[in-house]
């Protein structure tokens, strides 16, 4: 029985650190605090998780050519020289206050969102690589009127590479993502499913999961496999030890 206890102890020493390392890695990956930005403005409470909205763009013949279902949140930080302060704001895009338009071409598709009666103008441009049949978010532009700014502020980046998918398939990511657009602007996306090319009817194509979702699925598999391995090794050690114990009591 001492031998069995030794094997079990060794199994615990080997397996438990592995499980602990995996759990800690996941913990640090998901709850790491965001970078702190110094500001002279009064602190404000962050809004709740944004509501998901369905956004459609139709082609000239009336068929849907771009389809998106997602929650959007704008994170803005801009220096105001006249006011000698940094203005920060977090804005949730509200679908019921948003008007959708856009256009679809052979290798580009745009989604234009006019929010709050035109006070916010947010545009996404997707590009398609005809060689690889891969699409991606290539450009974002934003013009927004902020309460603490006298004039609307604008941001634009034409060299992005986010939300990559395959022609004929939709891109899906359940996890929250932060898309860095330009100095002073990032966009948080929530439970995204989108397809800017190859839409059939008003339905998404088969979904391709993002890397964040795949990583979240992998962690429980690793932990489960480690626990299953531990149980199996302990069971084998017990059976071997029991067999040897019975052999030692045979009649001479």
TrEMBL record:
It is found in: Cell membrane; Cytolytic granule membrane; Late endosome membrane; Lysosome membrane. It comes from the Eukaryota. Disulfide bonds join 173-210. Residues 1-29 form the signal peptide. Keywords: Cell membrane, Disulfide bond, Endosome, Glycoprotein, Lysosome, Membrane, Signal, Transmembrane, Transmembrane helix. Belongs to the LAMP family. This is Lysosome-associated membrane glycoprotein 1. Residues 219-250 form the Lysosome-associated membrane glycoprotein 2-like transmembrane domain. The keyword NAD does not apply. InterPro entries: Lamp2-like_luminal (IPR048528), Lamp2-like_TM (IPR048524), LAMP_CS (IPR018134), Lysosome-assoc_membr_glycop (IPR002000). Residues 50-199 form the Lysosome-associated membrane glycoprotein 2-like luminal domain. GO terms for biological process: establishment of protein localization to organelle. It is a single-pass type I membrane protein. The chain crosses the membrane at residues 217-240. GO terms for cellular component: late endosome membrane; lysosomal membrane; plasma membrane.
């Amino acid at each position: 029985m001492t031998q069995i206890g030794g094997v079990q102890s060794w199994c615990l020493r080997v397996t438990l650190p592995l499980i602990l390392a995996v759990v800690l890695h996941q913990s640090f990956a998901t709850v790491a605090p965001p970078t702190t930005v110094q500001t002279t403005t009064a602190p404000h409470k962050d809004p709740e998780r944004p509501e998901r909205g369905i956004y459609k763009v139709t082609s000239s013949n009336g068929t849907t050519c771009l389809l998106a279902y997602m929650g959007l949140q704008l994170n803005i930080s801009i220096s105001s020289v006249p006011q000698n302060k940094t203005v920060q704001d977090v804005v949730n895009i509200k679908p019921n206050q948003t008007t959708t338009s856009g256009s679809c071409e052979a290798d580009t598709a745009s989604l234009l969102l006019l929010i709050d009666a035109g006070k916010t103008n947010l545009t996404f441009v997707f590009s398609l690589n005809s060689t690889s049949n891969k699409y991606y978010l290539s450009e974002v532009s934003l013009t927004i009127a902020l309460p603490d700014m006298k004039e609307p502020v604008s941001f634009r980046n034409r060299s992005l590479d986010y939300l990559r998918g395959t022609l004929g398939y939709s891109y899906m990511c359940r996890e929250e993502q932060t898309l860095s657009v330009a100095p002073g602007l990032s966009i948080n996306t929530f439970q995204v499913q989108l397809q800017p090319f190859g839409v059939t009817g008003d339905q998404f194509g088969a979904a391709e999961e993002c890397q964040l979702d795949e990583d979240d699925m992998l962690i429980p598999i690793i932990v489960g496999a480690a626990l299953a391995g531990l149980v199996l090794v302990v069971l084998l050690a017990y059976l071997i030890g029991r067999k040897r114990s019975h052999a030692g009591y045979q009649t001479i």
